[in-house]
Design a protein that fits this description.
The complex is a heterodimer of chains A (about 280) and B (about 270). Helices cover about 75% and strands about 0% of the residues of chain A. Chain A is built from eleven helices and no strands. In chain A, helix 7 (about 150-175) runs antiparallel to helix 9 and helix 9 (about 195-225) packs antiparallel against helix 11 (about 250-275). The radius of gyration of chain A is 27 Å and the shape is extended. Chain B is an alpha/beta fold and about 270 residues long. Chain B has a domain at about 10-90 and about 165-255: Rossmann fold, CATH 3.40.50. Chain B has ten helices and ten strands. Chain B has helices at about 45-55, 75-85, 100-105, 115-120, 125-135, 155-165, 185-200, 210-215, 240-245, 250-255, and strands at about 10-15, 20-30, 35-40, 60-65, 70, 85-90, 170-175, 205, 220-225, 230-235. In chain B, the strands form two sheets. Chain B has a six-stranded mixed sheet, with helices on both faces. The chains are: A mainly alpha (about 280), B alpha/beta (about 270). Chains A and B meet through helix 1 of A and helix 5 of B. The complex binds adenosine-5'-diphosphate and magnesium ion. Magnesium ion (MG) binds near residues 46, 47 and 176 of chain B. Magnesium ion binds near residues 46, 47 and 176 of chain B.
Chain lengths: ~280, ~270
C-alpha cells in the first residue's frame, strides 16, 4: 500500500536507487545566478536609456496635463471627417483581412508538415513565412505609400501584406494539429489524398481558421487606426492632425469612438465564433 | 498509518436532466472494501451515478453518506477533500498528454499540499518516492520519464491508477476503465484494480459494460436499467436466465455495443 505516512528516509533512499532521475533536483545555484544576471541586465538598460526618477516624474506631469485637456471629450467641428476616417479604417481592415485570408488559405496548407511531407520543403516554406512575418505593418505602409501614393490603397496593401504571413503560419499550425484519425478513415475507405484533406482536415480547421480571421479583423481595425499617420488612409490622419495642434479633447473623442468600434467588432466576432464552434 | 474506511450509503438518489431521469430513486449500501460492478446498457445511468458520488454531478434528490459524512452537503474545501478521497478513473484516462508519466502520477498529490509549490511544480522527495513506489508496483518504472501521450492505452490507464493511488483515496470510482482497451490491456488494468482492492482494502465501484468482466473480478454486481436497480447480488447469480428476465434480451444482445472482454490473469505476485 502507498501511504505518505510510511515514507521515511529509508524509503526515499530505496526509491532513489530504483529511479535516480525522478529526483533530479533543480539547481538553486544556477537559478540564483540566472536571476541576478536578469536583474543586472535590467539595470544596465535603465542606465543606457537614461531612465531616471526626475525624467519619469517630468514625463508623468506632461501626461497629466494632456489628460486634463482631454476632458470633456468633444467631436469638434469636423464630425463628418471623423466618421469618414473611422469608416475608412474599418473598411480597410475588413477588406484587407478577407483578401489576406483568401491568399493565406493555400499558403497555410503548403506550410503544414502533414501536407507537404518533404521536410526540407516544409522547413524552407515556414522560414519564408517567418521572415516576412517579421516586417511590421507600418513598414509595409511606408513602402506602399511610396509605391501607390497617399491614401487607403496603400493602407489596404499594408494590411494584406502584414496579415497574409501571420494567417498562413497560424493555419499551417492548425492543420498540423488536426487529428489524423478522420483522414485515415477516408484513406482506408479508398479516398484520394485530396479527399482525405477535404473531409478529414478541412472540417477540423474551418472553425479554427474562422476564429483566427475574426480576431485578425479586430486586431487590424485597431492597427489600421495608426496607418493614417503615415498617410495610408483612415482615422489616423485625423488623430495626427489634432495632436499637432493639441486639440486633445477631440483626440480623446476619436479614441473613444475607436474603442467602441473595436468593442462592437469583438462582440460580433465572439457571437459568430460561438455559433461556429 | 491507516485511514478509516467507512461504508457508502446511498438513499433515494435521483438525477434528472430535463425530462430524462438518468438515475431514479436508487438505494445502495456499499460496505468498506467491496469491489462492486455496476452494469447496464449504454444510457442506463451508470456514469451519472458515479459522477454524483464524486459530486461532479449534483443529485436532484436523495442523499449520499460516507460513514458519518453527509457527502451531498459538502462545500468548498471539504468537497475538494472528498473528491481526493474517492479517486476517479476515466474511460479516456484523462492524463496530461504533454507531461511525463512521473508528473502525471504526482498530480495525485495536489490536494495534499499547499498550492504555491504545486503551482511551481515542486514536489518533495517523499512524494517522488511515493510515485516511484506506485509506478514500480505496476511495472511502469521504465517509462517514468516518457511523455504520457506516447504510451499505449493500457499503460496510460495504469498510470492513471498510480495517480489515483497517490491521492491516498478511501475509494476508487472507475467509469468504464477498460472500454477503450484491447483484451490484453483490459486484463492488466482489471488485475491491477483487483490487486488494489485486495491488498489495500480500497472500496471500488466500477462501471463495466461487459458481464464476464463483472463476474470474473467483482464481489457484487448491481445492474441498472433506465436509472433503476434491477439486480443486486453476487456475480454467480447473474446467469443468462436472469439477464433475460431483467433486460428481456440475451447476453449476446446485451453486449451488442462491442466492448472487449477481460478474463483474469494469474494473480501477479
Ligand atoms: N449532462 C447531461 N445532460 C443531459 N442528459 C444527460 C447528461 N448526462 C447524462 N444524460 C442522460 O442521462 C442518461 C444516463 O446517462 P449515463 O449516466 O451517461 O449512462 P451510462 O453511463 O450508463 O451510459 C442518458 O439518457 C443520458 O442521455
Ligand atoms: Mg457512461
Amino acid at each position: 500500500m502507498i501511504r505518505a505516512g510510511s515514507i521515511g528516509p529509508a524509503e526515499i533512499t530505496a526509491a532513489r536507487k530504483r529511479l535516480p532521475t525522478a529526483f533530479a533536483a533543480t539547481s538553486w545555484v544556477w537559478s540564483g545566478i540566472g536571476g541576478m544576471a536578469f536583474l543586472a541586465w535590467l539595470i544596465l538598460l535603465a542606465v543606457w536609456f537614461d531612465i531616471t526618477p526626475t525624467r519619469l516624474a517630468g514625463g508623468l506631469k506632461g501626461l497629466l496635463v494632456i489628460l486634463a485637456q482631454m476632458f470633456p471629450p468633444s467631436p469638434g467641428a469636423q464630425w463628418a471627417d471623423i466618421l469618414h476616417g473611422l469608416l475608412q479604417s474599418v473598411a480597410m481592415a475588413f477588406l484587407g483581412t478577407v483578401i489576406a485570408a483568401i491568399i493565406a488559405l493555400p499558403l497555410g496548407f503548403f506550410g503544414a508538415r502533414n501536407i507537404v511531407l518533404n521536410a526540407a520543403a516544409h522547413f524552407s516554406v515556414r522560414r519564408f513565412y517567418d521572415g516576412f512575418r517579421g516586417i511590421d505593418q507600418l513598414i509595409w505602409a511606408l513602402a506602399f505609400v511610396r509605391a501607390f501614393g497617399l491614401g487607403p490603397l496603400a493602407g489596404l496593401m499594408a494590411i494584406i501584406a502584414a496579415e497574409v504571413f501571420v494567417l498562413a503560419k497560424l493555419l499551417a499550425e492548425a492543420v498540423e494539429n488536426t487529428n489524423k484519425a478522420p483522414s485515415e478513415a477516408i484513406t482506408a475507405a479508398g479516398g484520394s489524398r485530396l479527399l482525405a484533406i477535404r473531409f478529414g482536415v478541412v472540417p477540423q480547421i474551418l472553425p479554427i481558421y474562422l476564429a483566427q480571421i475574426l480576431y485578425a479583423f479586430e486586431s487590424n481595425t485597431r492597427s489600421a487606426t495608426i496607418l493614417g499617420v503615415v498617410g495610408a488612409g483612415g482615422i489616423g490622419l485625423q488623430i495626427a492632425e489634432r495632436i499637432k495642434v493639441r486639440y486633445w479633447d477631440e483626440v480623446c473623442f476619436i479614441i473613444i469612438l475607436i474603442l467602441i468600434t473595436v468593442a462592437l467588432i469583438d462582440r460580433c466576432s465572439a457571437t459568430i465564433r460561438s455559433r461556429c464552434a | 498509518m491507516s485511514i478509516a474506511r467507512e461504508s457508502l450509503r446511498i438513499h433515494g438518489l435521483s438525477c434528472r436532466f430535463g425530462a430524462v431521469t438518468a438515475v431514479d430513486e436508487i438505494d445502495l449500501d456499499v460496505p468498506a472494501g467491496q469491489m462492486l460492478a455496476v452494469i447496464g446498457r449504454s444510457g442506463a445511468g451508470k456514469s451519472t451515478l458515479l459522477r454524483m458520488i464524486n459530486r461532479l454531478q449534483e443529485p436532484s434528490t436523495g442523499s449520499i453518506a460516507y460513514g458519518p459524512t453527509d457527502v451531498t452537503a459538502l462545500r468548498g474545501r471539504a468537497l475538494r477533500d472528498w473528491r481526493r478521497d474517492c479517486a476517479m478513473i476515466f474511460q479516456q484516462f484523462n492524463l496530461i498528454g504533454r507531461a511525463d508519466v512521473l508528473t502525471n502520477v504526482l498530480i495525485g498529490r495536489l490536494n495534499h499540499r499547499p498550492w504555491l509549490p504545486s503551482l511551481l511544480g515542486l514536489f518533495t522527495e517523499a512524494e517522488r518516492a511515493m510515485a516511484v513506489q506506485a509506478l514500480d508496483r505496476f511495472g511502469l518504472l521504465d517509462i517514468a520519464l516518457q511523455r504520457a501521450d506516447t504510451l499505449s492505452g493500457g499503460q496510460q490507464q495504469r498510470v492513471a491508477l498510480c495517480r489515483a493511488l497517490l491521492q491516498e483515496p478511501r475509494m476508487l470510482l472507475a467509469d468504464e476503465p477498460i472500454a477503450s482497451l484491447d483484451p490484453h490491456n483490459a486484463r492488466l488494468v482489471m488485475d491491477a484494480l483487483r490487486q488494489i482492492n485486495r491488498e489495500d482494502g480500497l472500496t471500488i465501484l466500477a462501471n463495466l459494460h461487459h458481464l464476464d468482466t463483472a463476474r470474473a473480478y467483482c464481489d457484487r454486481v448491481v445492474a441498472l436499467d433506465r436509472g433503476r436497480i434491477v439486480f443486486d447480488d453476487i456475480p454467480d447469480r447473474l446467469t443468462p436466465d436472469v439477464i433475460m428476465a431483467i433486460y428481456n434480451i440475451t447476453e449476446q444482445e446485451f453486449h451488442a455495443a462491442d466492448t472487449p472482454v477481460a478474463e483474469p490473469m494469474r494473480q501477479i505476485q
